[in-house]
Amino acid sequence: MLELKFVRAHPEIVRADLTKRGDTEKLAWVDEVLEMDRRARELTVEIGNLRNRRNVISREISQARKAGNDITRLLAEAADLPARVKEAEAERETLTEAVRYRLMRLPNILHESVPVGKDDSENVEIRRWGEPKLPAFDLKNHGALAVEHDWADFERAAKIAGSGFYFLKGRLALLDMALQRFAMDILVERGYTPIIPPYMMNRAAYEGVTDLADFENVMYKLDGEDEYLIATSEHPMAAMYSDEIFEEKDLPLRLAGLSPCFRREIGAHGLDTKGLFRVHQFHKVEQFIYATPEQSWDLHEELMANAEEVFQQLELPYRVVSICTGDIGTVAAKKYDLEVWMPREERYREAVSCSNCTAYQAVRLNIKVRDPTEFTEKRYVHTLNSTAIATSRAIRAILENNQNEDGSVTIPGALRPYLYGEETL
């Protein structure tokens, strides 16, 4: 969320950012926020004056009584003051809530390098790695291949949980575990602390992490409880230090979360409807960093480099794209996607999302860092996140890119130590 004092001081920056995004609805909010904030501050002064008048009038009544003067008018004014204070406080509270509502939903200020575009078709490719594979034989659908080898069971999963779920069996279950440990080992070697977070969060914590009104439709909420199953371990890691203050010497703090991820809405997208690409539940290793503002942009590149290292060691061709204004969403100031090559579709598909959220989440969650030169001075930290690996999408990429004509699948060399040294699934 944007700080109110930032909007007050730099409304032209906020307007320019919303214009760049093409968000005319929220553009109108800027003037609304400024006007409501002006009136709320006016009311604060008014309330102070009314309370001060209450003290003064008490003295005037006392003095008038001693002098034997008529106090009817003073008593009437004194009787009226509590209602006037209450009315002003109610108006101020309404305005304050309306300002906060808008501040919670105004998007982050974009980095100047974010490309302008209307949607994901206008994201900008930055680089590619590896040669896209186009086998001479007809590739089998990864879901069909998994069923054929008895590595997965979609029908029985649908019977007990509904569509979009799956049983992974045998070697594919081991492959999922291998991918998790492989990615985690890379991050641990680079100084990241492994985290297994709670798989549920309460509403207050979730509203600190993201705009829950926009995100709630993809989440699972427990009936009768103020709890949600997490959509990614980024969210509990982001909220982990809410209402706390870091010492600057302790930043950056690098975390590596491992969790299942739960998402309700997966849509219907042709080849994605049967298989492992769009599912309700999957495992993911997630990178997360708390940083000072001076550190965050270099660390954004570090996160992307870590994700690329994972896919390079898996020998999976990919490209990196910079996400445009029409696709970036509310929270990130800049975002990269890593898209892995899917030879059956002959195109790249998203496998990694890497974001610098600057202070946007920290303002909502009240996470600050103390200035080492001025003990009482504090500022908001920056938060960054990136997928290291989402196992279901990586499994599909391996089943397609490493599929052999006889239906076997070559195990990437980097994963063989995690799969008993075997070379094929």
UniProtKB/TrEMBL annotation:
Pathway the protein takes part in: Aminoacyl-tRNA biosynthesis; selenocysteinyl-tRNA(Sec) biosynthesis; L-seryl-tRNA(Sec) from L-serine and tRNA(Sec): step 1/1
Domain Aminoacyl-transfer RNA synthetases class-II family profile: start-end pairs: 138-412
Superkingdom of this protein's organism: Archaea
Enzyme class: ligase
NCBIfam families: serS (TIGR00414)
Pfam family, one: tRNA-synt_2b
Described purpose of this protein according to its UniProt entry: Catalyzes the attachment of serine to tRNA(Ser). Is also able to aminoacylate tRNA(Sec) with serine, to form the misacylated tRNA L-seryl-tRNA(Sec), which will be further converted into selenocysteinyl-tRNA(Sec).
Name by which UniProt lists this protein: Serine--tRNA ligase
EC number: 6.1.1.11
Domain remark text: Consists of two distinct domains, a catalytic core and a N-terminal extension that is involved in tRNA binding.
Record carries keyword Aminoacyl-tRNA synthetase: yes
Record's subunit section: Homodimer. The tRNA molecule binds across the dimer.
Source species: Methanoculleus nereidis
Keywords noted in UniProt: Aminoacyl-tRNA synthetase, ATP-binding, Coiled coil, Cytoplasm, Ligase, Nucleotide-binding, Protein biosynthesis
Residues reported to bind ATP: 263-265, 279, 350-353
Coiled-coil segments: 33-91
Binding site for L-serine: 232-234, 286, 387
PROSITE patterns assigned: AA_TRNA_LIGASE_II (PS50862)
Record has Ligase as a keyword: yes
One GO MF term: serine-tRNA ligase activity
Catalysed reaction equations from the record: tRNA(Sec) + L-serine + ATP = L-seryl-tRNA(Sec) + AMP + diphosphate + H(+); tRNA(Ser) + L-serine + ATP = L-seryl-tRNA(Ser) + AMP + diphosphate + H(+)
Signal peptide location: none
InterPro entries in the record: aa-tRNA-synt_IIb, aa-tRNA-synth_II, aa-tRNA-synth_II/BPL/LPL, Ser-tRNA-ligase_type_1, Ser-tRNA-synth_1_N, SerRS_1_N_sf, SerRS_core, tRNA-bd_arm
Subcellular location: Cytoplasm
Family: Belongs to the class-II aminoacyl-tRNA synthetase family. Type-1 seryl-tRNA synthetase subfamily.
